[in-house]
Structure formats: C-alpha cells, structure tokens
Sequence to fold (309 residues):
Amino acid sequence: MVDQFKFSYTAMKTTIPVLVMLLISSLSCSKKTSKEDYVSPIVKVENPIVPVEPEKTSGVTLSADGLTNTYTLINKYFGGTGDVIETPDCAHSPGAPHITQIYDELLKKYVFAFQIHVSPDNDRCLPATDRQRNEIKTYDKSPDSLLASLNETVRYSWKFKLDKDFKPSPNFTHIHQIKALDGDDDLPLITFTARYKSSGNKLEVIHTGGTGTTSLKYIASVPLSDFMGEWVEVKEEVSFSFDGKYQVLIKRISDGKTLLDLTVNNIDLWRDATTLCRPKWGIYRSLLSPEYIRDEQIRFNDFNITEIK
Fold:
C-alpha cells in the first residue's frame, strides 16, 4: 500500500505541471488572432516632430530643435541677459517672425530659416531705407565666452544653405560678419558677401583693417554656383590682434568637396579703442538695386563658438 501511494504521488508530481502547461496553451489558442484583431503597441505618426540633439562639440553650440520658440532658443544660447536678434519684424503688421525653424530633408533635422522680403523689410525700422537686415549676433550682454578679447583665438563653425535660385545684389549681400563691439566698430573686420557679377556670381571674403593701408580687401572670391542648393560647413579660426591670423575652411556636405581653404598671416584683426569683437550671421543686403534681388530664405544651423586660447 505504501509503495502504491509513493507511485501515485510521484506520478502526480510529474503529470500536473504538464497538464497546467497544456491548459494554458489551449486557452491562448482558443481565439485566432487576425490582422484585424491585432493592435500594434507602436502608433505611427505622419511627419513626427522629433527634436534632434545638437552635435557634441566644445564651446557653445546653437542648433534648431523644432520645439522651442525660435527667438527664445537663440537668446538662450547667445543672448545672455539681452536680445541678440536683429530682424525686420516691425515692418510687418502684425509683426511676423523672420527667423523660424523648419525640417530640412537633406540634413534630416530641424534648422533655422532666415527670411527676407524685398518689400516691406528694412533695417529694424531705422531711418536708413537703402538696406535691410535679418541677423543674429553676440554682444556686450552675451556670455564672456562668446566674445573675443585682444590676443585671443576663437573658432567659429556653422552650416548654411543658399537656395538653388539665390539672387545676390551687385552691391552687397552679407551672410556673415566679424565686427568690433565698440571703438572703431563701423565696418566689419571680416565679411562673407554674395555678389552679382556679370561674369558669374561670387562668394567673397573681405578684410577691412583699421586703416586703408592695413586693409587687404578681397582675400578670397569663389564661384557662388558651388554653394547654391547645397549645405556647406564653415570652420573659421580668428586670432584677434593687430598682427593676427585668419583661417577658413568651407566644405560642401553632400560630397565633401572643399570650396575654400584660406590662411592669411600678419593680418590686422583689431581696432583702436575696441575692447571686444563678435560674430554675426544672417542676411544683410543693399536695396539700391532691387531689380537684381528677390524674396530669399537662407538656412543656417549648428552655430558654434569656441575660445581656443
């Protein structure tokens, strides 16, 4: 009797787990699952707004995120305690933002779109009517790390894209400037300007020293056609002094082609009575030849300012 009980107990220990497994399997298979019954745990959203993390670099980087108010985002990184945005919003009623964020299909991320209109845009509603401006900058209320002092070397890098049908003025269409913040601060030390030429439009890099004798003027001129409809990346290094050094490298992102590789030594990159220098980016152009220009959009992104020494 004892042996029979032991046998029955042992059999139950072996059989019960198997029966439980069979029961669970039977219940789970009792209802067929079809495509109509299945609910995916992932909800697909057309054109989702997904913020892109800025590239990892040293210094301070301003990149579009597709979520934050554009002017708030720019001032968060470059503004410090002030406002670094210079737009013609005031010329529109109601005021319309001239810098926005849009998704760029080539970079697969959000970027800044700088807009300018032949009319009614002006230069911040100031008296001058022969020019118009839509720029960002750093200035005296910006963090110290975004401003250049005498004998300091700063690296600036950014990306930009001109439209494939971009039309520059024969006078000037500035897209980047390095300027003194005070003292002799009227003309930029370094300017990138797109210019109409009957022989073929150019992107020019212009140097203006403190005097006529120290100004090198046109230190580079390259075909604008290489830039149009293409994203390019700029790396610029400036050693700020009366006997400074200027370097710039511009590469096209789509194929890595070098569009400009320039180094200039012994160049005047400071001004009398100046205490600080700073960069500007955007669109600043002449209205003296309106027949040559049109409403434009220039895309920018990934502005970086890094103090090297």
Q: What stands out?
A: Residues 206 and 218 are 5 Å apart (CA to CA). The domain at 60-307 is CATH 2.60.120.200 (Jelly Rolls). The first strand starts at residue 60 and ends at 62.
